[in-house]
Amino acid sequence: MDLNQLLNELKKCKKNFDLLFKQLKEISYLEQDRMANLPRLKARLATVDKTMGQLIQCASQSEVLRNWASQYREDLVRSEEHFKKHFGVELERELRAHNLSLSGQYPDLKSDLYTIELDFDGERVVLWYGPKQERIGQCHLSVTEIVNRIEKFRQQIGSGLSEDEFLKRLREAYSRVMGINRGEPAPIIAVLTELAYLLQDSRFRQDPRKENYRSYSRADFSYDIYKFRQIKGLRLKVATRDHTKKRMDFLWVPDNESGEGTTYSHLYFEEKQE
I need a labelling partner for 251 at 20 to 30 A (CA). Which of 13, 20, 164, 188 fits? Predict the structure, then answer.
């Protein structure tokens, strides 16, 4: 039995159930004075008997409904599998058009430096920088939206500075953190905090309001370090297990464009000995 036939059959049953409900309410009202309403109560009971006779035919519909629901559930599973397969193929095609790869298994797919966390039931996607290191944001379960969000993030990530300018700012941030203890490892997130301030322009320095603030996130710093990690004297200290318990104590940095990476807790500059 298809869905339309099932609905028609249930519609008939619904009419009889509605009628039975109405008849029982009338009996309930007449019961307030049973002795005065005996003839009418007997008449109402006769109509109830007639309606119940019609409802007996509806009893078989419950089994029909169970069978339909079971078959429909199997159909939905097959449709979901088809959708997931098609979605993955389309996503890979669109990512390749932007020179991005796609690998992994649902619900977590990997595209170079990014993780795509899919929630098919919730019809949403959470995007991450790295292996779920820094949350980029979320969007609808749409190939176009996913690719557009990743591409937009790729274009904006990092400081946009040249290597020399970044080195200058990074050294200054490191010095502000360590003071006279320069040469010693500095907590990497403390350096990020100082660097974020040093990257602000004159508008923020003159009027440090939210709208004048230039965002510089953990992901931005991570990507800049990855991009400029070979700069003069920069050294990174791999995070110990204790330093990876709190986000304020470490930063994940890519090792390559495939998304492999390392977590670091400190950085410092190794000066050449004269």
Answer: 164
